[in-house]
Design a protein that fits this description.
This protein has 12 helices and 9 strands. By secondary structure, it is of the alpha/beta class. The chain has one domain: Aldolase class I (TIM Barrel), CATH 3.20.20.
Length: about 280
């Protein structure tokens, strides 16, 4: 089986615990600093208690080309509020002061990391308590840029697979992937549509022939029923645009957080977690 590499510990322990509990997990995505650093910090700290099993934190970037309008807007809001990669790492450190177990994955694009400096970034990310990276614009052919240094630093490098990743391409995708494999269930940008359960079942069966890494499925999951359907066949459901959209719904005309924003997002997290926990394997 392909797909085994260095592991930071928390991700493997969390998927082992989920497997022992006989259920799939809920992976939540939020953009660091959206809509402002203080609100973002409060939301992040409350996610595990609301039902998040793993947390992806988006690194704000001016040109998030793989993301749909909702996540693009969240990134721009965060940047407008003064969020930087340095502040994103500080957000993780602050989270780790209270939570030493929930896995944290930073997700985004290579440009901010390259600007920060790869070696410095990996050192600072590891020290802050980052467990994994998802960098969507670095293909396997560029593994020496970030993937291999990340693994050497003890940080998981999580790769994406899509419906167009055929059996000839999968070995290259899986070669240095660790932590879990993130299956993007549709071709296109985030937050648009969702795949059918039949297509997902077929995809999971094919991927499991190539790797024994945990499989997380994302893109287009908005409801508890959809999350439950995914958790019944995969190891985790990834939800992002639905949370980011809930944040946007609770902003005033100047993109400032209205009272109740955090509670509103956490209620959605709780609803989706209930769906995931009720899924039958």
């Amino acid at each position: 089986m392909a797909g085994r590499a260095a592991d930071s510990g928390r991700i493997a322990r969390r998927f082992d615990a989920l497997r022992a509990a006989g259920r799939g997990g809920l992976v939540t995505f939020v953009t660091a600093g959206d809509p402002d650093p203080e609100t973002s910090r409060a939301l992040l700290k409350a996610l595990p208690a609301a039902g998040a099993d793993l947390i992806e934190i988006g690194m704000p970037f001016t040109d998030p080309m793989a993301d749909g309008p909702a996540i693009q807007a969240s990134s721009l809001r965060a940047l407008k509020a003064g969020m930087t990669l340095t502040r994103t790492l500080a957000l993780v450190r602050d989270f780790r002061a209270d939570d030493g177990e929930t896995p944290i994955i930073l997700m985004g694009y290579y440009n901010p990391i390259d600007t920060y400096g790869v070696d410095r970034f990996l050192s600072d990310a590891k020290a802050a308590g980052v467990d994994g990276l998802i960098v969507v614009d670095l293909p396997p052919e560029e593994d020496e840029e970030l993937c291999l240094p990340a693994l050497a630093a003890g940080i998981n490098f999580i790769r994406l697979a899509t419906p167009t990743t055929d059996d000839r391409r999968l070995p290259a995708v899986l070669a240095n992937t660790s932590g879990f494999l993130y299956y993007v269930s549709i071709a296109g940008i985030t937050g648009t549509r969702s795949a059918s359960e039949v297509d997902l079942q077929s995809a999971v069966e094919r991927l499991r022939r190539h790797t024994d890494l945990p499989l997380a499925i994302g893109f287009g999951i908005k409801t508890a029923a959809q999350a439950a359907a995914v958790a019944a066949i995969a190891d985790a459901a990834v939800v992002g645009s639905a949370f980011v959209s809930r944040i946007a719904e609770n902003l005033d005309s100047e993109d400032r957080a209205r009272p109740g924003l955090v509670d509103g997002v956490l209620q959605l997290v709780s609803d989706l977690a209930t769906g995931v926990r009720g899924a039958k394997k």
